[in-house]
Amino acid sequence: MALARRAASCGLCGRGALLGQHYEASGSNQQQQQPRLARFSDSLRGKEKSGKIRVHAGESVSRTWAQSNIRATLAQDRPTTAASDGSALLEKFAAPKGQAAASPPSVPVTAKKPPWLRQRAPQGEKFEELKDSLRSLKLNTVCEEAQCPNIGECWNGGGGAGGDSKHHKATATIMLLGDTCTRGCRFCAVNTARIPPPPDPMEPENTARAIAEWGVGYVVLTSVDRDDLPDGGSEHFARTVRTLKALAPEILVECLTPDFRGDWEAVRHLAVSGLDVFAHNIETVKRLQRIVRDPRATYDQSMEVLRVAKGSKAGLVTKSSIMLGLGEKDDEVLQTMKDLRDAGVDILTFGQYLQPTPLHLTVKEYVTPEKFDHWRVVGEKLGFRYVASGPLVRSSYRAGEFFVESMIKEDRQKAEAV
């Protein structure tokens, strides 16, 4: 069986010219080729360490075994960083004078997940209704594509995986612009390709009509990165928001956006489209950006996206998210929080990074619920209007929570009164 050589733009760095060789198994007997491909990735890893070449992952197409094996093998060599206590740095934010507040320790990664990370399988009447509706309309959700552990709770309206809530509306997170991303972040399970299929021109209208009929109170619109589009998909996003608001103005709309390659006009265009919350995730601390995210997504660029969005419209609520458990240190987390506040971010979420497949970045540590609560307290003292912090929290997790809805509606009333 032959090995097919690929020479395309690299999924990790985005450069057009490859310095290393890229392979993927072709045919139906990929398992027979794994030892050979493993030796190939070992060779690349050795060259990367020696400084002779820079290792690339090749064009990312449907998570081919070869590409993911190279990424995963390299990821295993990343040094594990123990969580620092951080109490000396953080006590001035988290404890009264004279009382030092220790940062709770994390749990070393073991074969089994700790009990606080276990979830029941999603089920429930509302869950099944939304699932069937999505299938019939051929819509994508990041809940499914990214294998979110909270899909049952959010789709059932905050009532847990079994759907026992009677007082909350469901929160849905719809993924626009297709299900294939132009970037290759090493924490994300979404499919990637250098040039994905073109967006469905009717998707904004179809999506808006479907959401209006579901009866959800709060919807999150997100998307893959589309670096192949001139505006990064900003107008596609904005048209979806405008159409949805025309059909159901009472629904609160959050847009969890890409960075649009630093195109500030694209950021402003979406920010003034009628959305209620502009969200963009910083994902991790500055030191880990190039390990965790695609190199085209930078710390400073993401901070500027949030700053530009905040200044585009008076009263606009902005939001970001940080994953923990990737080897970050407490002082780095604190600095990231300060930088987000300086960018005007109102809402911050913390969640545990969970490896979506064995081919993605490994978890460095399981952060305890006590430490997540610690970061919630620190965030509130730093001035964030709302902080959701917990092992299973995700950026759009329980986005329609009562407090957030009330905050948005109060801001809207103040803006109308001016």
UniProtKB/TrEMBL annotation:
Pfam families: LIAS_N, Radical_SAM. One of its GO terms (cellular component) is mitochondrion. Pathway: Protein modification; protein lipoylation via endogenous pathway; protein N(6)-(lipoyl)lysine from octanoyl-[acyl-carrier-protein]: step 2/2. One of its GO terms (biological process) is lipoate biosynthetic process. It catalyses: [[Fe-S] cluster scaffold protein carrying a second [4Fe-4S](2+) cluster] + N(6)-octanoyl-L-lysyl-[protein] + 2 oxidized [2Fe-2S]-[ferredoxin] + 2 S-adenosyl-L-methionine + 4 H(+) = [[Fe-S] cluster scaffold protein] + N(6)-[(R)-dihydrolipoyl]-L-lysyl-[protein] + 4 Fe(3+) + 2 hydrogen sulfide + 2 5'-deoxyadenosine + 2 L-methionine + 2 reduced [2Fe-2S]-[ferredoxin]. [4Fe-4S] cluster 1 binds at residues 143, 148, 154, 396. Its EC number is 2.8.1.8. Belongs to the radical SAM superfamily. Lipoyl synthase family. Its main location: plastid. Keywords: 4Fe-4S, Chloroplast, Iron, Iron-sulfur, Metal-binding, Plastid, S-adenosyl-L-methionine, Transferase. This is Lipoyl synthase, chloroplastic.
